[in-house]
Automatic annotation (TrEMBL):
It comes from the Eukaryota. Pfam families: LRR_1. SUPFAM superfamilies: L domain-like. PANTHER family: LEUCINE-RICH REPEAT RECEPTOR-LIKE PROTEIN KINASE PXC1. InterPro entries: Leu-rich_rpt, LRR_dom_sf, PRK1-6/SRF4-like. This is Leucine-rich repeat protein. Transmembrane segments: none annotated.
Length: 155
């Protein structure tokens, strides 16, 4: 089942540990939610987590996300700190981190092959990402450089 609490002018903090173990889709977007985000211990069956356009702040950990996760959107918040994208779920297709205050060097060399869309625009993240055919990575107004990669793996 899914939880959709978009555009409801919700205020306060959000404790994701309350999520039922059977929830597959969580969309809590365009509210006024604040506080930190603990992305550890999320339900194992979660496929889609969209917490965009709120006012969440602080650092987040991307190293123990559910293996089933296909979409993570934390864009348009006030999140900060460095990000570790070396242990993303193997099924992740879409990752939206743009419009936050993330900074520091990110190692993009171990992105899952399933990742088709990644947005890190308008952050202070640094690094180099290889963009293969069929993949769309948005890096404008960041310090991430794209290296194009052909179908046969050549630069």
């Amino acid at each position: 089942f899914e939880i959709q609490w978009g555009y409801r002018r919700l205020e306060g903090s959000l404790d994701l540990s309350w999520l039922p173990s059977s929830v597959e889709i969580v969309k809590i977007v365009e509210n006024n939610l604040t506080g930190s985000l603990d992305l550890t211990g999320l339900p194992e069956v979660l496929r889609d987590l969209n917490l965009s356009a709120n006012m969440f702040s602080g650092e987040i950990s991307l190293t123990s996300l559910p293996k089933s996760l296909e979409l993570l959107d934390v864009s348009f918040n006030r999140l900060s700190g460095s990000i570790d994208v070396t242990r993303l779920p193997s099924k992740l297709k879409e990752l939206y981190l743009q419009e936050n205050s993330f900074s520091g060097h990110a190692d993009f060399s171990k992105l899952p092959p399933s990742l088709v869309i990644m947005k890190v625009s308008y952050t202070d993240i640094e690094g180099q990402v290889y963009q293969g055919e069929g993949k769309v990575f948005y890096v404008s107004h960041s310090n991430v450089k794209i290296v194009k990669q052909s179908r046969d793996g050549k630069m």
